[in-house]
Amino acid sequence: MTIRPASTTDHPPHRSNPQTSARRLRLLPVLIGLCWAIQACSSVPWQARRSAGPTGVFGQDTDRQEPALSGDGQWLATLLLRDGSPTLLLQEQPSGRRVPLPNLRGLTPHRSPSLSWNGRYVALVVQQGPRRQVVVEDRASGRLHRLQLPVGLEPERLSLAPDGRRLAIATVVQGRPQVQLFELSSVLEPDLPPAEAIRGPATPMENR
Hints:
It is a single chain. It is built from 2 helices and 11 strands. The chain is 15% helix and 35% strand. The protein has a domain at 62-185: Neuraminidase (6 Propeller).
């Protein structure tokens, strides 16, 4: 008597069902068509995608990185590698018109740009001598605000609130990464969407 392992089971020979085979043959063209449709969709670029526009003197093929878009979608900030140093480029959308920022000249390299809602404020990290510094460009007044951080804070990245009243900064303190919030309400006016600028508290109706 032959003893089989307990994990071995006997299966009856498989017999093909004519109805099942016919059904599979009818579904085959449908499956082939579906595969072709999926492949075609994956090869078509997203219709909403478009170029960020001409980059002027920098050239269209210059490396671009760290994009930041204003809340209204009208302004795009990117960093371009120019002579090996990242330089901020601000463009109006969708035309791609370049907007000069003369206050930032000589404060390179730039990193981590962030825009307010209407693009009035442009915050970024710049190089000031041997140290990095956080600055906010006010495009309406033409002023450059230099934020005085506590001693020992080395800014790495930042994010400006849409209204420009608060700023989150990723820093390194004694070799340890930290994120800190800074109030800018005493320095910057609010940059609000048009609807928010005229909206006030509801006025209660008089009892009649």
